[in-house]
Structure formats: structure tokens, C-alpha cells
Write a structure and sequence with these properties.
Length: 383
């Protein structure tokens, strides 16, 4: 077995027996000095293993800046100027490129909003955190903090782009005898799947709350870590907005026969491999841990319910394409990029907006806390 993350996981299994997929993923992705995200400041882009909206164009951050500026003004009491500072807290910030693009856009388009911003970055990877100060060299006074954790209290907007899909998940399987959990074990020097009793009653409770009964033979992921994070985010936000961008489905679809093998997927050099390969050799997600991304689709229903149980109000859930198109139309960006010298920007917007690109697969979820129910431009549904 190879050194590094493989050895770390193998030793854990030898010490305590088979481990949950959630524990395996946590080590494979985040183990200090060995996990996939822990060893590099950036994993996406042309030279990485996958693309995100941040890689597509700085226009993604610029359009977010326009939505955040509207949120800033919406938080002001009637007749009063907006509050300063307005805290932008990015969770799962990587090396901080997205918040930098937000600042770039605000600086060009809305100087008063720009001057109000205090950026706080939350990122587990120490390698990524080391890059933060340099990324913000052109924005003196706007970069406030960098930490592995969320702030204990913040007022403004807490946002995350493709964070929840990277949280470790439990994998379960429905058998004729009832719900079981898939564990990771070692056999003949290789990582293998092993069925066993569920590691926590919370897994069965999760499905029961959703009214979901898996068919016999079906497999699925349950993201308890994402729900815990939502609770922490709601606690951290004293007043303001929570904005999440991720790919996923409502629970009735996510746990339907259409996804009977689950959605756990590994990305390596821009090639995706589904997790479930029963009878076809070792699943891709068990190969070379620490060298590739692991991800699963987000249960939007559970995220929304957990946010509301934690004191937040759902302000809207829309496709990323609709969200960004609303902002691009409202602010005149579509007209701006129509010129012959803006071909690159038009192509980037196509990737972000049109079906078949990132816009049709990603959802934007916005929640509020002590801000009422403002009609945010990005969340409006227009025929």
C-alpha cells in the first residue's frame, strides 16, 4: 500500500476495524499534510481536477458583488445609511479567489459598498490559508481574517460556493433485512466495501423525517456533516444572509430510483467516476485516497429544513443560471459584454448561464436572519 493518505487510512482501520465512508472521506480529503485539499492551495481549474464557476470567469464574483451590495443596503433601517463594516464571510474559501473577485467587482462598480466590506475567510486547508494575504494585496484594509473555523459572530453575508458537496458523507444500503451502512475495510492489501449495522441512529432518522423509504438494493449518501455546518453557520450569523451555491436535488429526487446507486463521485484530471461499481472491480473512490476529489450531490430539502430549524428564513432557491441572469440583466452587464472586444466575457457568461453549463446544474439558496423578506434581484423568478 502506498505511503501518505493510504497508510494513514490503513492504520486507522487496523486499529479500530472498518471505518465509515464519512471517516474515510474526511481523511482522504482533509487529513493534515496528506488529504487532497490539505496538500494544495488550489485544486480546480485547467491544471486541476475539476472546474468551478470561479474558474469560468471573474464575472461570477462580480455578479455576486452586485447581489451582496443589494443585501448591504437592504439591511439598513429606513432612512439610515447602510452599516459599516459589512462582513463578507466566505466558507470553504480555498485560496480566496472568489472573495477577491467580489472585491474587484465592488471596487469598480460600487465604491461606497467596497469601502464598507470586511472579508473573513474560513478554510480548513493550511496550504490554502497561507495564500490568503497575498491574494488580497491589491485590497488593503478589506481583508480582515483567515481561519479554519467560522467567526463566532458576523453581520453581513456568509456564503459558500460548492462547499456542502465536499463534506464527508455516510453511505447506506437498503437490504432485505433493513437499512445497513457501507464501511471501508482492508482485504488483500486493498480498500474494500463492507456492509454492517448503521453507525448512528441519526441515519435512519434522517430518512424517516424526509418520508423516504429506499428500495431494496438501493444505495444512498446521507450528509450529516452538512447539516451540522448549517447549524453552525446559522449560529455564527447574528444578522444578515446565508448564500449557498451547490449542485444537488430535492430529497424526493435524490433518493429516487433515478439515483439508486447514490451520487458519490470522484474527480481526477477532469474525469468523473461514479462511486458504485459493484461487480466491476474496486470503486474509483477507494483508489489512491488523497490524490483525487470526492463529492456527492446535496440534499436541498434537508439543507432548507435544517436552516429553518436553526432560525433562518428561506428567501429563495433558484438555478444558478436564473440567479446570475437576473443580476446580469438588472445591472446592464449583458449589454456591456455585447461589444466585439468582450468575446471572452460572453463565452464565460455562456458557461455560467446556459443549459449544459454550470448554470443548469447548480442551485443558489439564500436564507435570511433578522432582515425581513427583501425581494433580492438574483432570486426573482421572471417569465
Amino acid at each position: 500500500m502506498e505511503p501518505g493518505c493510504c497508510t494513514l487510512i490503513a492504520n486507522r482501520i487496523r486499529q479500530q476495524g472498518p471505518i465509515t465512508v464519512a471517516e474515510y472521506m474526511d481523511l482522504a480529503l482533509y487529513a493534515p499534510d496528506a488529504g487532497y485539499y490539505a496538500r494544495a492551495a488550489q485544486r480546480s481549474g485547467r491544471t486541476g481536477d475539476f472546474y468551478t464557476s470561479v474558474d469560468a470567469s471573474p464575472l461570477f464574483g462580480e455578479l455576486l458583488a452586485r447581489q451582496f451590495a443589494e443585501m448591504w443596503r437592504a439591511m439598513a433601517p429606513a432612512g439610515a445609511p447602510p452599516a459599516v463594516p459589512f462582513e463578507l464571510v466566505e466558507a470553504g474559501a480555498g485560496n480566496g479567489r472568489l472573495s477577491r473577485d467580489v472585491l474587484d467587482g465592488a471596487q469598480r462598480r460600487d465604491p461606497s459598498f467596497y469601502q464598507s466590506i470586511a472579508v473573513h475567510l474560513s478554510e480548513r486547508s493550511a496550504a490554502a490559508r497561507l495564500a490568503h494575504a497575498g491574494v488580497y494585496a491589491d485590497h488593503p484594509g478589506r481583508f480582515a481574517s483567515s481561519s479554519a473555523d467560522l467567526p463566532t459572530a458576523c453581520s453581513g453575508v456568509l456564503f459558500a460556493n460548492e462547499l456542502l458537496d465536499a463534506f464527508p458523507v455516510h453511505r447506506v444500503a437498503m437490504t432485505a433485512q433493513g437499512l445497513c451502512e457501507i464501511f471501508v475495510d482492508i482485504e488483500a492489501g486493498q480498500f474494500v466495501e463492507r456492509l454492517g449495522e448503521v453507525s448512528s441512529p441519526a441515519l435512519a432518522t434522517h430518512l424517516e423525517r424526509l418520508g423516504i423509504t429506499l428500495d431494496v438494493g438501493a444505495r444512498a449518501e446521507i450528509n450529516l456533516a452538512a447539516l451540522a455546518w448549517i447549524r453552525a453557520a446559522a449560529s455564527s450569523l447574528t444578522r444578515g444572509f446565508l448564500l449557498l451555491v451547490d449542485y444537488g436535488h430535492e430529497a424526493v429526487e435524490l433518493y429516487s430510483p433515478a439515483h439508486a446507486d447514490g451520487t458519490l463521485t470522484t474527480f481526477y484530471r477532469h474525469v468523473a467516476d461514479a462511486a458504485d461499481q459493484r461487480g466491476r472491480g474496486t470503486p474509483a473512490w477507494l483508489a489512491a485516497p488523497g490524490t483525487r476529489d470526492l463529492t456527492s450531490h446535496v440534499d436541498l430539502t434537508s439543507i432548507r429544513r435544517e436552516a429553518e430549524r436553526s432560525g433562518l428564513i428561506t428567501l429563495g432557491v433558484v438555478d444558478q443560471s436564473r440567479f446570475l441572469l437576473n443580476l446580469a440583466e438588472h445591472t446592464g452587464l449583458l449589454a456591456e459584454v455585447a461589444g466585439p472586444d468582450r468575446l471572452r466575457d460572453r463565452l464565460a457568461l455562456k458557461t455560467l448561464l446556459l443549459p449544459g453549463g454550470l448554470g443548469s446544474t447548480h442551485r443558489v439558496m439564500v436564507f435570511g436572519k433578522q432582515v425581513g423578506t427583501p425581494a433580492l434581484t438574483g432570486m426573482l423568478w421572471r417569465r
